[in-house]
Amino acid sequence: MALAPAIASAHGPDSGAELDVRLDPLAPELAGVRAQVHRTVAYQLVIENTTDRVLEVLDERGVAFIRIGPSGVEGNLAAPAWYRGYAPEGRVPPSLLERIQSGNPPEARWVRARREPTWGWFDARLDPEAQPAAPGVHRFEVPVRIGEVASALRGQFVPQPKRTGTLNARLLSPPDLAPGVRISLVPGRVGSFLLQSESQEPITVLGRDGEPFVRLTPAGVDANLRSATFAEAARLRGGARLALEPQADAPPHWERLTNVPSYGWVDLRTAYAESDVPREVASGGARVELLRWAVPVRIGAADDAPVVRVEGVTEWKPFPAKPPAQAKPAQPSH
User: Fold this and answer.
1) Would you say residue 332 has pLDDT above 70?
2) How many CA atoms lie within 13 A of 299 on its CB side?
3) 31: CB partners within 8 A, 6+ apart
4) Mean pLDDT across the chain
5) Where do the H-state alpha helices sit in 28-147?
6) Is 317 left (phi over 0), alpha (psi -120 to 50) or beta?
7) How far apart are CA 9 and CA 83, in angstroms?
8) Dist CA 125 CA 75 (whole Å)
């Protein structure tokens, strides 16, 4: 079945109000870097680096675990934070933890995870629930390096303002992709798809880099564990138990997920950061399109088999206006 994305929320230590994670404006040395916070099962940092320099993200030990640059994204397989980025309770190889705890951490081991310079991950430093139960402003900091220049992504936990609407992903394409192949979308802040196939042909969903992501056949559903898009989808639906190994330059590594040709997933291609909703849109009281997206689906086994683009939009949807309160009828006098 399709899973609608759970919305992360947290409550302030002193007021009981729900907290949001807000990024500060980026430092001047990070010009050309775009940072967002997305809310799904927890808060995620999403970074795009359009510069010609490599941006490194450091963990709590000061060890780089993500590199984002002109050649794409690399992950450090010797850093626990790389594995925990897939899910808040992501599985870290026990042997790695043992070496770090014994004071003998391994050398960095980098693998290219994506060809595009964009990456999102869960980061415990953005967890509002971990803030001390004391009044006042609570802040966070994620150290980074760009080139050889030290910097940081900084922000604070703020009470969430009264909501006037919500983000909503909506399908525009016809649901029938081919004979016996149907896709549906559960509307929500981030789109949740359900793909079902009765076709004898393999049906392959392509990821954000054009890589095979998941494949439906009469025998069931296979996932490409080397797809960065599958890593994203898995961490949004409790897939941390899988041996995720996103590698942009490696051939697919398929693993059977189910024997039924039906698969549901949350797709971040439909996501729009709520913090980026223009104020005039949030207060305007009208439905506004903010993002157009497409998810390619290949029908057939050959690399040049037909590809159907599943298209849709993510829009701002205001809450319905409350009807005015009705005046109580006057009571007859006696």
Assistant:
1) no
2) 18
3) 51
4) 84
5) 80-84, 94-101
6) beta
7) 23
8) 19
